[in-house]
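Database export, one record per block. Field names are fixed; values are copied verbatim from the stored entry.
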Amino acid sequence: MAHRSARLAFAAVLASFHCLFFPFPAGAQAVVLLHACVHNTTGQVRFVDPDRPCTNTETRLTLNAAGSPGERGEKGDKGDPGPKGDPGAGLDTGVISGVATSCQGPLAGAMVYIPGRSFVSVANALGGFELSYVPPGNHNVTVEAVTGAKRSFPGVAVNTGETTALGTVSIVDITSDVSNCGACGNACPAGQACTGGQCILNCPAGTVNCNGSCVNLGSSFGNCGACGRSCAANQACSGGSCTCQNGFSDCDQNPANGCEADLRSPTTCGSCFNNCGPRDCSPSVGGSTCTLRAPGAPCTSGGQCTTGTCFGGICQGNVTCGTCYYSTNYNTSCSPYSRGTYDSRCGGNGLVCTGSGSACLIASGYSCSLGGTPCLSGLCEYHFPSGFYCR
């Protein structure tokens, strides 16, 4: 009886607890487990934690506080509609359209896409395409034929809410395609390239096309540094600049006549301002230098000779003519004759030298005397009324 009384008491308490703390709506079902200890004699109920035990005089009860759902009630009337919401931001996008073609006509089935993005359109039978919902900005658009041939169109601008019409776009670039240079079907000859829609000579690396010829601008005499830039006289092209050839110099600093000075010339011997005068300009190590001619060399003046004497077109040495000695300073004389106006190895007054160790003789046309100094010709003749003269 005690247990039954405890259960009845607990049920009453439970009913009150349910109404106060678990007002579930009709039709709802939930599981709420309650743990309690009911005194076996008095029926007193105390709720405990799930893991807390009851005493020996109590009975432990665990019940679901929620009952089974009731029947569903009738549907209520429809409520009034709520206020209209604010308009949404929409899609901030644009459209790219066009017609894909090749030299053979429309590219039906070609793929048109933006690399790296999920925007793809397949061209219709007439090559038409449209890329939708493209974010604003500049995009690279690629057109790829079913054969795999493709061409990219960089910098296609897209604006919000607008359609960017590319018009007719061809996968054939007639500005660079050697098979269709400038126009479909216009093939460049072998050895030529298509540049800017024109067939031009395809020059190897290190050379450029100058008026139809491949030239090296670093060494071409007529195209030095640039096509048509020609070097002047006695110049060579080195590293794209005109420079003087070996043995020449630009002494007057006039680009028009190039390197006009020959550094092997007596007037510019070895350098622009080295004038040899009557001396020769001879090659030497590191350039050219002024030199004199040795005895026996042909001459036109004494300044060309090492001894300073040119006689009979020949550079003369220091020779002895009998008792007449010749010196380069012209200070000696041939006794008993003094130096006169006639410049000879014997000092003048018509005296000449016939060779080393020879006597001084009188030249032709000068006065002589029978039995005196012999004439060079060997004949001392009387000329009326002047007197005796050498023939």
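Remark 1: The helical segments are 2-21.
Remark 2: Residues 2-20+31-64 form one domain.
End of record.
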